[in-house]
Amino acid sequence: MSHDALIEAAEGLVPLLRARAREAELARRPLDEVIDAVRASGLFSLMVPERHGGHEADLDTFFEVTLILSRADPSMGWIVGFYIEHNFWLCGYPESFQNELFADRDHVLAPGSLNVTGGQATKVDGGYRLKGQWQWGTGIVHADWVMAGALVREGDAAPAPLFFALPRAEVEAVDTWHMAGMCGTGSWDIEIDDVFVPEERAVPMAELVNASGEGSRLHPGELYRTPLMPILGFAAGLPILGGARLALDEYLSQTRAKIAANQVPAGGPIRNEGKAAVVARAALSIDAAELLFRDVLAGVMAERNSASVETRSRWLARMSHAVLLCREAVQDVASVTGASGSRLDNPIQRALRDVSTAANHVVFDRESRYGDYGRLLLGQPLQNPIV
């Protein structure tokens, strides 16, 4: 599927996502109907290489698709974006495992946790034994495979972070997902109880983060020479931008409808210049956030894994700032919606909950990202090594 065809497929899913958003939120998990529709659309194989039957689309296509879906429902934009992106992660594993994984399919549905403190891995003959419990298992509800990071100590060497892949049948999904927002993602915990993982299903974390492993050598597309963290930043950040757009669009639609029905005084909310100014500020902040995201997108696609650590840190700081702009904008919109904006089935209220929750993702940690950006400006060394 071409870039335009994939965009069209995403747009075709928008009515379904909008119609089922509240139902997914109440179910606290993605709906089977929605996952089946996305699978039929072909979007899950967006980042899968052509040699494995995928579309091998680049980051700009992923950007547009994720944003389109997130403007309909941030939770589903999140789950679909992460499913797509995690196929990119799997392309960093050894060739033998990739061939096994994609032998009879063009995509995999797999949650992934980069948190290496969630469990422990021990080296044994032919592989590793892995155990632990990892939070934030986005995608576990419909998963085929699971990915989890852990530290491995061999001899006297310092512990090294590795990333492991396991069949879904070998892990336990633990329903811990009682959240204020992003409820529809069903991001349950992943429990692994002393499971053997063959060597070919393990990859050094640094190879994934730096796009310097098997995928960069095996697949011709420039996507596979793109560092992981900026892609993760888009996967987590675009649903927040989409949620902010959703809140603003809903506010404008609902308010115009009230004006048309003569439910507000002549002139509508413009009579209260303070309220109009708040909405204007929110709209401008969302525009600024999107410009930041798109500027980072252009930089990532131009430099890929040739970018310096400082440049990559700057990308993540800019995305973090865009996320915070979106969160503040949604809070502004919610503050002028009136009592109806507090109804749980109002999309503005759902966007507020989703954006407020998603903005807490560790990749956007304000103190860490702003702190490193300030150190860059002052010519000081970075402190966050994961960029």
Name some characteristics of this structure:
single chain; 387 residues; alpha+beta; Butyryl-Coa Dehydrogenase, subunit A, domain 1; Butyryl-CoA Dehydrogenase, subunit A, domain 2; Butyryl-CoA Dehydrogenase, subunit A, domain 3; 3 domains; eight-stranded mixed sheet; 12 helices; globular
Structure, explained:
The chain is of the alpha+beta class and 387 residues long. The protein folds into 3 domains: 3-107, Butyryl-Coa Dehydrogenase, subunit A, domain 1; 112-203, Butyryl-CoA Dehydrogenase, subunit A, domain 2; 228-377, Butyryl-CoA Dehydrogenase, subunit A, domain 3 (Up-down Bundle), CATH 1.20.140.10. 51% of the residues lie in helices and 12% in strands. It is built from 12 helices and 8 strands. It has helices at 3-27, 32-41, 59-72, 74-90, 95-101, 205-210, 214-218, 228-260, 273-303, 309-335, 347-358, 366-377; strands at 112-113, 119-124, 127-134, 145-152, 160-167, 172-174, 189-198, 202-204. Strands 1, 2, 3, 4, 5, 6, 7 and 8 form an 8-stranded mixed beta sheet that branches. Helix 3 packs parallel to helix 8, helix 8 (228-260) runs antiparallel to helix 11 and helix 10 (309-335) packs across helix 12 (366-377). The longest helix has 33 residues, at 228-260. The chain starts with a helix and ends in a 10-residue tail after the last helix. The relative contact order is 0.12. The mean pLDDT is 95.
Helix content: 40-55%
Gap between N and C termini: 31 Å
- Which strand-content bin applies to the residues? 5-15%
Shape call: globular
CATH superfamily of the largest domain: Butyryl-CoA Dehydrogenase, subunit A, domain 3
The CATH topology of the largest domain is: Butyryl-CoA Dehydrogenase, subunit A, domain 3
C-alpha Rg (nearest Å): 21 Å
Largest beta-sheet characterization = 8 strands, mixed
What is the number of E strands?
8
Low-confidence stretches: none
Overall domain count: 3
CATH class of the largest domain: Mainly Alpha
Q: Which structural category do the helix and sheet elements fall into?
A: alpha+beta
